[in-house]
Design a protein that fits this description.
2 copies of one chain form a homodimer. Chain A has 449 residues and is of the alpha+beta class. Helices cover 34% and strands 22% of the residues of chain A. In chain A, strand 4 and strand 5 form a beta hairpin. In chain A, helix 1 packs antiparallel against helix 3. The radius of gyration of chain A is 24 Å and the shape is globular.
């Protein structure tokens, strides 16, 4: 159990749990981590429960509910990504290491999502210590399955809809803006995935004996991929953009301001390790990442994979695609449009099999709403300058579920430094961001009251 | 060493060597196979030498040279294609299995090229046994690098030009005509191969955080593949068809006659295991296979290859291509044209690396030459009907080198059954073709004397 509420030692204790949700051998670590959180909340005097699910437990902790106060639900997750590839870590992933010079703590889960979650928790702890009470009712909901797609959270929300009934939700599972600038994320892209398989001949054929007379599944797969975009990166699936709204003037201004402050394309080139950027004409890089839907090939394979030459006309090929979507695009409909588009282009003699994968809706929270403004004010007071307004290109499908099931908006106030290497070896968290986050959260709760 | 000259047991011994020339781990098997051939020729009383090359050895065996007789060089290869994908074999590729009902032997290398080569060898062995001498001088040249493009054979021919000095060359590395009909092959396609690699970001990127802003190497690779053909299968590389001559009237007639006799498209569909054929407009299927140049994707790969989803924008992709060419097309020039075409279409931020593979020219031998007519006669007498005249879509690049270096034509009398699955899993050889081939070869040597 937590030995103190001193921020850095508490964070180090939290980071020591290898709470890897996707690996069954870590189930006991996941459970131990949930118990540690339970003890922490109890120490703070919160009413705390561990909810078993078919998977990993959900930790819920609440202040006493005062009906005169607004209720803020703070969501986070205590599970982490697997740490591999292990050889690429400069220190052990579950033995937190502080680099004094960089001001960073290195550990799996540091930025995603333990330090940001703990900043919320310790913000509340400090406020309670100082004032004995909070300006709002707070409910913490810390789950253990975010990294595996939150398969049991929606059912939990449905079941506890009336008990939870928040006025607003706070999540710190995004990042600071490029350049480690304070930001409020007002949109996340949705996601939809599919795999398709092109099958042709019943077996690999000799490319001399049959080449020219039989459709080659690899050529067909490539032509289908090529049919997804024009040469300037615009997507050609009929109906794909139908629900996409043009960017509003304030959004383009916000993106331009951030681009100017953060080093613009050069800093993105450096992060990506490319010599040049490339994307849909008519949009800046930040707009392409945050505000425009995409389709990317995540993997393909077929035919001879070994060294040298094997002159075959292979029998099949596979392609894995993922779409990133913006608000109002329905992931299921996008997958249907894409499937219809692919099916239309088959030459004779090949078949197309499509296997749909997971999907989740985009989210958009008006930053000029009352709560949005309150969050921006808290950020401004904490960091001394107006926060940037950010569209994040990644996806957190549970945010759409919050809106659908609980009926309220989620404020995304990210704390992770942009070079935090989330999901990668040497994941890290800037300690300043963590400590600032503790203060920010106290201010946030005041502004949201 | 060979335990007898009994055809089937000898063939089984020969097929047991996994003489895969492209895989370094099989080098010792390749060498053992060459030694086995050496012992076989010695047993027949031929003067036999193993010639080392920078790659795999060449086995040469000769009857005593009688200056009053014509000299026939018989070429074959003892190396084989890799057997993968292994799970698709119904029996182990190097444990020959006879299916009595089908009258076939199953093994990698059975039809390509061990049984046909052995038919030549045993034809000579039987003739020597019966008559003590041959009507012609015979030189066997059996190499171990045909499946990797015969990189060392041309140098060997140059070096031994005067020693070899044949009057005509015999090769059985082609097939019977569709329907397993006797045929003389008068043309083979050339071949040219390349691999290309598209590289983009320095590491796999998160498709949410970067998707839309960076050229995806897999999308680029697919677009390059798609740029090779129009939707009707015509090749779009500028200059690709410049050297291609229109088919002569007798050729179209020969193709039409064969199409009629062999079951036409239906039999090719069945061999390929496709529901429909597909190819360049304006040509019959046999013309597409034998007389038209092609480009096929032999393999591609990149990005996530595992189960489920990994939403990355991968750092690189590879594509393996092979071209089949017709007479007068220069393989090196075709590779240059293709390289230039690919380089022209790169979006910013990706690089293209092209690695050229082996290549070899097409060949065309007039079937109405004196030796061509002699071969047709031997076929007619062996099989009881006039042989079909065939353009074979496969490539034996060394045939062009024979003509260039030794100055003589090659007669292509194929023995492989059309459903032999050469280069594919479950490669097989009709035993009747093998045994008939032994007799045919004796008649051929007489007709060529």
């Amino acid at each position: 159990m937590p030995t103190s509420l001193d921020p850095i030692p508490t964070l180090i204790e939290y980071l020591r749990f290898p709470s890897v949700s996707t690996q069954p051998e870590h189930t006991k670590d996941v459970v131990a981590c949930a118990s540690w959180l339970e003890a922490l909340f109890q120490k703070m005097g919160l009413s705390t429960e561990i909810h078993q699910t078919p998977g990993h437990p959900i930790v819920m902790a609440k202040t006493a509910r005062d009906p005169k106060k607004r209720t803020v639900l703070i969501y986070g997750h205590y599970d982490v990504q697997p740490p591999d590839p292990l050889p690429e870590w400069t220190s052990a992933p579950f033995e937190p290491r502080i680099d004094e010079k960089e001001g960073k703590i290195y550990a799996r889960g540091s930025s995603d999502n333990k330090a940001p979650t703990l900043a919320h928790i310790l913000g509340v702890a400090q406020a309670l210590e100082k004032k004995g009470s909070l300006p709002v009712n707070v409910i913490f909901l810390i789950e253990g399955e975010e990294e595996i797609g939150s398969p049991n959270l929606a059912a939990f929300l449905e079941e506890h809809r009336e008990e939870l009934a928040p006025d607003v939700i706070l999540v710190s599972d995004t990042g600071m803006a490029p350049g480690n600038l304070p930001a409020m994320t007002y949109a996340l892209r949705g996601v939809a995935t599919m795999k398709f398989i092109i099958r042709g001949p019943s077996h690999d054929l000799h490319s001399g004996l049959f080449g020219g007379a039989v459709a080659n599944p690899l050529t067909v797969a490539a032509r289908l991929i090529a049919s997804l975009h024009d040469e300037k990166g615009h997507i050609l699936i009929p109906g794909f953009y139908d629900a996409v709204q043009p960017l509003q003037a304030w959004e383009r201004e916000a993106a331009a301001a951030l681009e100017k402050a953060s080093g613009g394309d050069d800093s993105i080139k450096e992060l990506a390790g490319v010599t040049e950027l490339f994307g849909e004409a008519g949009f800046t890089t930040l707009e392409r990442i945050g505000a425009r839907p995409t389709v990317e090939v995540n993997g393909f394979g077929g035919g001879y994979q070994g060294e040298g030459t094997k002159t075959i006309l292979p029998k099949e090929a596979f392609v894995k695609l993922s779409f990133r979507l913006v608000e109002d695009q329905d992931p299921k409909q996008i997958l249907e449009l894409a499937s219809a588009h692919l099916h239309k282009q088959l030459p004779p003699g090949v078949s197309l099999k499509i296997i749909l994968g997971h999907s989740g809706e985009a989210c958009f929270v008006d930053p000029q709403s009352k709560d949005g403004k309150a969050a921006q004010e808290a950020l401004r007071e904490s960091f001394g300058s107006a926060p940037f307004l950010l569209r994040d290109g990644a996806s957190i499908p549970i945010i759409a579920a919050f809106k659908k099931i609980l009926g309220v908006d989620t404020l995304l106030v990210g704390l992770a430094n942009p070079d935090c290497d989330m999901h990668s070896p040497n994941e890290n968290m800037l300690l300043k961001n963590f400590l600032d986050g503790i203060k920010l959260n106290q201010l946030l709760l005041e502004k949201l009251s």
